[in-house]
Design brief:
Rossmann fold, eight-stranded mixed beta sheet, six-stranded parallel beta sheet, 14 helices, 22% strand
């Protein structure tokens, strides 16, 4: 089957893009359609009424009105009726997990064609929801013709996928290379003149482990500054900890970082640090964004997570045990220390991005999966 003969539907979370799952869905729709593949997207709307947007000649974005939001899930009955109406027009439905609404819509659709299940992560936080959702999740796993995951580690370690390893394949997330302006980067460096910038980015929530990154600053010299971008419920707690440890001026919570400023922080930093402590962090797109700028990464070895696979220890950076502030500080010092070592890490980070995590590679590999398993 040729590319142009395939008709694909991306099915999953809400729009506009608010997180990694939605971004992957949207990037696949746009990237595949730009290659001449008919690839539409059906999702729940974050807010507002039903809408249909013609993205280009090969892609249509269909958003269904959300009735209510519960446990990070958009409840959209309209999505069920819409999928039942349109599903027979597609050769493959690519459903993105975790999203109980998408799974329910597929279950009730009567669709008989090929299903690709994109396993972004296990459900970790909503334990009660998982118990309710488990029968539907088991049906979805059994129904899928192919299960793709963001890393081979997560696919192999997920307790829910132990019995279906023969139909799993890794599809690492890919992003566009971030290319900040030299003038903007220089201006950012001048703002923190004389300091080695350690940058981190993410929601201020417990699983991100920011309290350990804040504490790690105690063990770094005064020639370092730790910048943490993002918002969330732990902002006041982290601010109080920074004050308590006497780290005002050495650790800064940036708040929301604009799309215009984000490349400048990546470009100006010496190293990117991911201090996450739970398997909820399955991949961490921020790692590969930093690598695309040629920045080494210090990350954590979270059991059963793909984080430490993304950041190859000794090549693109260093991985340490989670919940260990001293180990984070030691790794940061090691990566940013001697010149030739830092250069090797920086070059290794960019090379790993080029080999595994470009958006083009993600689109290309996804299309291969479709073609191989549709033809079978």
């Amino acid at each position: 089957m040729k590319n142009k003969e395939l008709k694909i539907l991306q099915l999953g979370k809400f729009y506009p893009v608010r997180g990694g799952v939605e971004k992957v869905m949207y990037d696949l729709m746009v990237g595949l359609s730009e290659r001449g593949v008919d690839c539409d997207m059906l999702c729940a709307a974050w807010e507002g009424e039903d809408s249909v947007t013609q993205v280009n000649g090969h892609a249509t974005l269909m958003c269904c009105k959300t009735l209510l939001k519960a446990a990070a899930t958009m409840i959209s009955p309209a999505m069920i009726f819409k999928l039942r109406k349109i599903c027979r027009g597609y050769d493959i439905i690519h459903v993105h997990h975790p999203d109980p609404m998408a799974a329910l819509a597929l279950f009730l659709s009567g669709y008989k064609g090929k299903v690709v299940l994109h396993w972004h992560s296990d459900i970790q936080k909503q334990r009660f929801l998982l118990q309710l959702y488990k029968p539907l999740q088991q049906w979805l796993i059994a129904r899928a013709d192919r299960i793709v995951g963001t890393t081979p580690v997560y696919l192999a370690e997920s307790p829910f996928l132990k019995g279906v390893q023969t139909k799993t394949v890794a599809l690492p997330i890919g992003v566009e290379r971030i290319c900040p302006s030299e003038e903007g980067v220089e201006a950012m460096k001048q703002r923190y003149a004389g300091k080695k910038i350690v940058f981190s980015l993410g929601r201020l929530v417990p699983y991100k482990g920011y309290k350990y990154l804040v504490e790690a600053a105690r063990y770094l010299g005064d020639d370092y500054v730790v910048l943490i971008g993002g918002t969330g419920p732990l902002k006041d707690t982290l601010e109080a900890e920074i004050e308590h440890l006497g780290l005002r001026g050495k650790v800064e919570l940036l708040g929301r970082v604009s799309e215009e400023d984000l490349p400048l922080y990546y470009g100006a930093c010496e190293v990117f640090c991911l201090s996450s402590v739970q398997k909820t962090e399955a991949f961490a797109i921020v790692q590969i964004e930093a690598m695309s700028c040629g920045k080494p990464v210090v990350a954590t070895k979270i059991p059963q997570s793909g984080v430490s696979w993304v950041n190859r220890d000794g090549v693109s950076g260093i991985n340490v045990e989670p919940e260990d502030a001293r180990a984070l500080a030691e790794a940061i010092r090691k990566v940013t220390g001697e010149g030739s070592r830092y250069k090797a890490f920086a070059e290794g980070a960019f090379k790993r991005y080029q080999e595994h995590f470009t958006k083009e590679k993600m689109i290309e590999n996804c299309l291969k999966i479709y073609l191989n398993y549709y033809e079978q």
